[in-house]
Amino acid sequence: MEIQDMANGDSSKVVQQLDTVLQQLEKQMKMKEGVENMLEVYQTTDHKHRKRIKELEVNLDVYSRNIIELTKMAENIRHNSGSNAAEITRKLKETKFFNVPTPFGLTSSAAVFTPPGRARRAKRARSFSSGDKRQQQRDESASEEAQNEAEVDQRSLSERLSDILFILTQRGQPDLAKINALSALIKIADNTTTGGLESSELLHSIRACSTASNRELRVNALRAVRHLILNDTSCQFTLHNFLPMHLDLVVIRAITRDPAYHSEREQALKLIRTLMDYSHGGTVYITQGILRAVVAIAEQMDDTLRNIALETLAEMAICDLPSFVQVGGLRVIVQAVIDGPRRMIDVLVSIIVYVLDDPSTRVYIRPGIDLQFILASFTDAYSKGPSAEERLRNSVRVLTLLFKTWTGTLFLCSNESRAIHSVVEALRLPYEETTKILLDMLFEIFRIPLPKDSTSYFTSHRPGNWAGTPGVDDSLELSTTYKHKQIPTLLHHHLSLILNIFTDAGIMMALVDIIKKENLSISRKATHLMGEMLQLSTRILPVGIATQIQSLPKLFVLAASFENEEIRHNATAVLSHIDNLNRIRGRLQSQVIIEKEESSRRNQEKVREVKVRLGMQIDDVHFRTMLVDSQVLNTKDHNKWNWEVITELLQGPLLNPRRLEEATRGCKFVKRLLAFYRPFRHRFSDLKASKVNHNRYDKAGCALFHVLLANAEGVRYLAENKILRQLADAFSQLDPMNASSESEQIFTRERMDSTLTSSYFRFLGVFSKHREGLNLLERFRIFSLLYAMSEFRSRDDLIMALITNFDYTLDGHPRVLLSKMMTSGYKHIRLFATTHLGEILSADGNEFNDWAIRLLITQLYDPYLEVCQKAVSVLDDACVNVANLELLVRLRPSLDHLGEISNPLLLKFLSTSSGFTYLNGLDYVSREMDEWYKERNCHYVTQLEVSLARAIMSSPEGQHSVFEERVDNKHNFETVQPCDGAVPSHFYGELTKTPQGCLMLREAGHFSLFADYIRNYSMESHDREIIRNLKAVLWAVGNIGATRNGLPFLEEEDIVKDIVAIAEHSEVLSLKGTSYYVLGLICRTQQGVELLGEFGWEGVVYPNGEVAGLCVPANLRPFLIIPPWKYAGIPAPLPRIELPISTQNRQECDVLKAIGDMSNQILASAASKDLTQLKSKNPSLFANIHMLSGAFELIGGLHYRLPVRRYILDMFDVDMNDEAYEWLDRIRNGSSSNDVSVADSEQAATTDGTEEGVMNGAPTSTKPDLPRLVRYQRKDSYNIRRSSHGYSGGSGPRLKPMIASLSNSEGGYKSDDDDQEGSELTAVKAINPVRHHGFDVAA
């Protein structure tokens, strides 16, 4: 429906226009109400009418927008009414659709509409339990959408704020008006940067709304506080008044509510996270009570907000670790990694690793206690509960993640590697499920991929099946050839230590024990793991250590023992399997060597020669028999053809020119095959795209064209056949100017996706491999058609098919086509073509390729940075070949416009003398050296650690964990740097590869400064900035020492011994890991291996004399030692209970004692009954603001489960008015000079002689009694028994909150343990109103 703008007429027609608008508005409102009623009906039918519901929601949206437009018209008429203002106002007041507009720019319910879709249905589900539900639903929806749909108010900010404040503070205002006012305030806070929101009266009014009975009003009040904090001008003022105005209590109450109040609890959590995100000390506003409320949610397994609560605690551990530990956050984190949810384990383990890394934070973990809970699932594997297996899998996941971090690995090796020994011993348990899970864990830790279809692989009864070709992880394959050396990565270095640790813990003997088990699948899986680990040890461990591992004395003893025939047979099968692995891997490596040494064309020629020889050996009778058996000569129906025989003929006998001539000229064999593949025959081109059809017809077609193009007779036959002509006609159909309506197009998008039509591009790829094929395509003008097709903007599928299927070995049209598509296509086509060119170079082993390098240089000038970034990455990989690098330097591309993106490529230039000369002439080297010395070294550490973490966390199958970074920034380094564990290029490392660079480094004197820094701060363990700089210096020194020219710098300064000292004695675990990796860089040369050997570190050297760049300490134990630490957890502040002096003190103390007892699981049941009885006898106690304040202090200082916290707060029914907040101010801000002593309190109580005092939170006189401050304190006379976890009482590190029961009138107390965290409070005592046992009264 179109709505005419009738508000712009002359003054005489204003009233008439208003009547017309109001009539249309009435109609739209009725239509909207009808649609809403129909939606309610359809939504109760279990989504059986989804299509109809969707139509109704669209109509509802239309009517709602019409109402908005009509409302704006009416407002415009009112503002332009002129002399008719009085009559217009009267009409608006009389109509039921309009009230007078609210002062902040939002009209009443007619001006807002109920949003369609899920938001509206969600609001319905959270409707109130009484009243007109439909109207309440409209009100709730209106409050959420009003600020987005209403007309923007043009008045000044002060006027709008004044009107908002008037509505929020005036008594009798409807809740909907306040909700709209808060929504408008939120909109102002989001869009205002000039100030004006710093008002105490405004915060007071928001606080009053936060305790209202209307749920939606409370939600918007919390949102308003959060948006005021997010506003730059009102942030400081709001934070400064957050605690004085008791907003922390509002947050605690909101977050503790029933799950039905989801929106309110969600807004409270958002407010907490906003406080944490505030960079100027926002965590100081998060009180212990708020943190304990978040902890309670994180403990509740079925709470919908548990995940976000766990994330909040994890962030709190980073922001304020002492407070996090005080409230028991660490206990909750450790429990959550075992109980789940599984998707949160990675994040929570990262927090544990963060705490373990630094000695200043490690002291918050009880050594040998806190984290041993993770290993309990292994040692307690005999008990089978309903969740035992899930907990075991979670424990395995945690252990795997710890092993994939340097800090976690060292921590697990502490205490003489007890954790490692526990895992190894758990393999011997007679619980098969535990053994399977642990074996899978070891496969992942050692990055050994399981074979495809591993179930049948390990359960096959034929030994040859499970002893066949193993899975090979290409990322861990280190070449042992003489000519092709693959640079090892940091993954190999990390894995070498893990393997050494496990072998030292006896993993091989444990696997031998598993092999003796009767379960065939487990035995063979252990056998396969052992074989792979033995292979791994020969590649990444020194010869001496690998030899000890390879000996396997126990296995040979079992194989030679005749006491048990089955065990002897299993041991013999294991040795056979290991021998098969060695032979198979040697054969695979030899194949890889041949592929690298020989070009693909040469390999194909050799294969062709072999098949030709085999074909020549076939006599005429055998050949003709095969032709007949193929059934091609007997029938034209391709379904009856024997494609196995056809393929055998194409790959063998027909490679002989004489046999091919006989098949082409002497019979119809080739003719019928080509007729089958002709596009317009609709035989091959109409077949469905499936794996079976692809293997049968597609491969046979490629073999057919390959055979014909390899022979001059075949080329002539193709030139005479119709297939190329029809293929050209099919491509010409794509041109709109030449399209023919007589037949259906062959290369439509649907046919490309669903049929074998896409295989014609593979056939073109076969043609492009032969010079004769290129000539044929040019002869039939197919290339001209392909050039035209490359410009199609809507057929990127065809362009990508061209790019991926053409062969670019020969110089000709395919290279020109690729160049055209890399420069003139859409951005995603250019990016795809650049990526494919990189894949071509990688497949060729990055051999010298002049044309590809020149094409990639062209891509460096692409207008989109993503394409440039990809070109830089491909060139960086290609420049591993020195010839490619020399060509690139010779062409001298301009890279200034790329900024940081070009740094990896420019660093490659420094590794050659010509590149150094070129860059030095541009003053690049000196400028870059200054930048690296000042700040780029530190940036390098961050980039490397992120890349290494992603590489280590990735699984051997290539899957990445949640730590994989989602790159959104075009300039992010991660888009260039692969996460394969390789060491990125370092400026100083590349600089020292040339004599000129070494001379420049010596003149600058940077290395001497690096060496001095390492000597001065090698044992630093507290200053994070120094540690970060030390890591940067270590990586710089390591990259310098990784080159032959750079190693003399280390020898001159004698700095290697200091790096070894850091690796062996540093208290910062990540710093030990950095030093370990740096030592691996140093041993990348033979001289470096010899140098490290002097300090007790063994390098890995292959039998051919090549160094692997890996090293391990000869003696593991000193290296793995972590200095012992003493737990330094700070007890939480003791709760302060502040009570007024009254004769009801005894009853109040009974209530507080019952609340305190509820923190003890043993006493909780009896305490809840006592609390219920106390409320039934004296309900006024639970309407007392002082008692509510005491309850907040207790739940903020003690540990309570979420249901208990909710039960306690729900017991109170206090009217949180201004008077109540004034009393809270007096309680919180009470001065010690105004407090009275205990004797004065007793005298006052005796003199009064009445029970009148402070009741229901209201004073009874103009000068009420001042509160006295009562503090819980720990007594040395407590009798605390040892708990089941081994924690002693008194001053022990693991005291738990306890509730002491009153045993006599003299204050003798006795307490029991429970399973709660922390030592912040040990007792809550009954208070005698006369003697005040167990309490200290604050002075």
UniProtKB/TrEMBL annotation:
Residues 15-73 form a coiled coil. It comes from the Eukaryota. GO terms for biological process: TORC2 signaling. Pfam families: RasGEF_N_2, RICTOR_M, RICTOR_N, RICTOR_V. InterPro entries: ARM-like, ARM-type_fold, HR1_rpt_sf, Pianissimo_fam, Pianissimo_N, Rictor_IV, RICTOR_M, RICTOR_V. Keywords: Coiled coil. Residues 142-151 have a biased composition (Acidic residues). Signal peptide: none annotated. Residues 1027-1099 form the Rapamycin-insensitive companion of mTOR domain. SUPFAM superfamilies: ARM repeat, HR1 repeat. Residues 176-542 form the Rapamycin-insensitive companion of mTOR N-terminal domain. Residues 618-843 form the Rapamycin-insensitive companion of mTOR middle domain. Residues 109-154, 1231-1265, 1280-1320 are annotated as: Disordered. GO terms for cellular component: TORC2 complex. Residues 131-141 have a biased composition (Basic and acidic residues). Belongs to the RICTOR family. This is REM-1 domain-containing protein. It comes from Bifiguratus adelaidae. The lineage of its organism: Eukaryota, Fungi, Fungi incertae sedis, Mucoromycota, Mucoromycotina.
